[in-house]
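Justification of computing resources. Each target in the renewal requires a structure prediction run like the one illustrated here; the chain below, 195 residues long, is used simply to show the kind of job we budget for.
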Amino acid sequence: MLNTTDVLKHNLAASIKAKQVLLQDDATLQTFTRAVDMLVSRYRQGGRLYIAGNGGSAADAQHLAAEFVSKLARDRAPLAAEALTVDTSILTAIGNDYGYEQVFARQILGKMTDKDVFLGITTSGKSPNILLALETCRNKRVPSIAFSGRGGGPCKETADYCIAVPGEMTSTIQELHIVLAHSLCECVERAIFGD
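Resulting structure tokens:
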């Protein structure tokens, strides 16, 4: 018989453990700091943040774009951000005409400038369309951030700033990605608009 309390306790313990590991990972924390500094600099130059992911990470991309454009915790001017996952006409046209691996890369080619920043979210670190998007950014000289898990996977070599979080389960990795996303937005808000 399923013991729902045990399932919840197990998941809470896994989440807490992964967060404690990340809390002690100085190299990853420093990568996060460098990514924040770069994003703040790009915003000050008039740049925008473009975000992409698949499945739950697509929902996280939309969630984060909303925090930047609306607000996270305080009233302030909007910060330009867009999730590349929401225009079904663009996604289905590119997927049909060029293949699913191209759905983000082609948008990057059409929308982004070297003032902008791309954030790819992939729990595995090996989503083909995120990897191609990161390669496209590198070729176009657009700075890129990756939120990943499982050691970073191939995106560790492709993203300018790969923040790979600990966790054995996809759900735990996604929980840490939300902490990263909210922290990224909070740091940018405070840097641009003050405390």
